[in-house]
Amino acid sequence: MFSNFGKDLLKAFNTGVSYFIPVVVIGGVFLAFSLASGKAGANGMEVTNPFMQNLNLIGMAGINMMIPVLAAYIAYSLAGKPGLAPGFVLGYLVNNPVPVGETNVSTGFLGAMIMAVFVGYWVKWMKTWKVNDTIRTIMPVLIIPIFSTLVLGLFYIYVLAFPLSLVMNWLTNVLGSLQGGSAIVLGLVIGVMTAFDMGGPVNKTASTFTMALMTAGVYAPNGMFRVAVAVPPIACGLASFIAKNKFDDADRQMGISAIFMGCIGITEGAIPFAVKDLGHTLPGICIGSAVGAALAAAQGIECYVPHGGFIVAMATNNIGLYCLDIVIGSLVAAAILVAMKPKLEAKK
């Protein structure tokens, strides 16, 4: 079952991405149009036009479905159709906060990838069970989905989520201790955390920290974070168009959506690139986000709303520098991505 573990895993991640891309495009494009018409408010960009609100609703449906679709089709690649249902359910579970003690934990796309692999191999193992013909007919539609979801869902809640919550609390405490130190160091840390898991628990820890400071009237860390969230997807999109010998047509299609999502402050737009080639993607986007956030820290950029990207530039204390920091961070990240990425022929 594990004889070709590496190849099977790579194939599974690529399968997940191929089904995941159209959902990303739907979410990113509809959100881009709707949020572009909004106004900065206390809860981020507020869309007041009824028609644009409907577009926003459609876009959010796409965003909310991204992670479950990714998990389901990774599991599908490993285990076939019986892996789809538990993959969807557990993908939804890891992308939504679950209570762990006094903490609500959401593990985002990293949790989804981990749980999808567990689902795939668990279902694959269940399919080898020796049962009579009557039981075998209901295995794929009843026994496998229910038993897999029960066991692995409880495993996530009771085993995986708790240590992750400890890590998140530790990161929050570390960030809190950096507040009184160098603003640039804080910016570098926030930038790396923002890009590290692209909307996952580390990213959300930085977000929670900056929003907590906003309630105390401290807006500079939020400015750093809101610059950093836009960098990874924009950088991935730019790199896919710059280095045509290192990215295929599917990557460039993802790149269009990624740039849209970066402009409206949705870091998850970089996820398809990271899933396909994490080793060559993560260093560049982490460095680029760190550069952008550090520049914002050095310039004292403040953002007064809990949202990011170019669309909230009007809600900052320096529109020009805020936009420039996003551009510089994105260009730095794109340059590193292009330099590190192997040519398509070499990859083959």
From TrEMBL:
Q: Output the superkingdom of the source species.
A: Bacteria
Q: Does the UniProt entry include the keyword Disulfide bond?
A: no
Keyword set, alphabetical order:
Cell membrane, Membrane, Phosphotransferase system, Sugar transport, Transmembrane, Transmembrane helix, Transport
PROSITE patterns this protein is in?
A: PTS_EIIC_TYPE_2
Q: Where in the cell is it found?
A: Cell inner membrane
Instruction: Name the membrane topology term.
Output: Multi-pass membrane protein
This chain's protein is named PTS fructose transporter subunit IIC
Q: Which organism is it from?
A: Olsenella porci
